[in-house]
Amino acid sequence: MAEPEEDPKRAALWQVRCLLRAARVGSLATQAEGQPFVALVTPATAPDLSVLLWLSALSEHTRQLRREPRCAVLVADVAEEENPQTAPRLTVTGMAEQIENIALKARWLAVHPYAALYANFEDFSLWRIRLTGGNFVGGFARAMRLGAADLAPDSAAVAAVTAASTGIIARCNTDHAAAMVAMARGAGGAEGAWRMVGVDVDGCDLAMGERVLRVAFAAPVADSDGVRRELIGLARAGD
Fold this sequence. Notes:
3-stranded antiparallel β-sheet; alpha+beta; 2 domains
């Protein structure tokens, strides 16, 4: 019997999740009195896929977000051809808010370790963009509108993996260092002492110095057992 074909929308939504989780640079669109403004930003994602930004109060875009929290962020992958329009890209819209959250700040710093130099500057603070929708272009003439429900991971799965994440990271780095190196190798990383610095329902982040790799799972997981199975598979694939 032939294998059932994969649902195209489901496959596209998984690509969206992987793209946003892996994004380390993007463009933030804000506005002031109807005048659009765009700035380069360095995003990370919270466990629930909301976008995290570490912003200076001195920046124009931060002042604009204080007045008008509605905003958008554009992130893009690498184009497979010379034509840049073949690059998968995602625009997400949402509502920005300044927050104080030690765990989410640590998550942002884990994928932007160079920012430790200014992580404690008084004029910087953590912002979260709660997603309300977006638009995904998977390549030339391949577009899909997204609602908030399309972007949101399962809340129970997010809670389960987040609760277990500290223990997962500690065990992986203490007891399975060779597996972390194998996973990095499988993701195209150079040989070296890679360590896990983050994990969520969609994948994990490995770091070596200031180099960070995003390693996606084959599919979203529901709990720590799902994470364990994915990590075993990734480590074996990298050997």
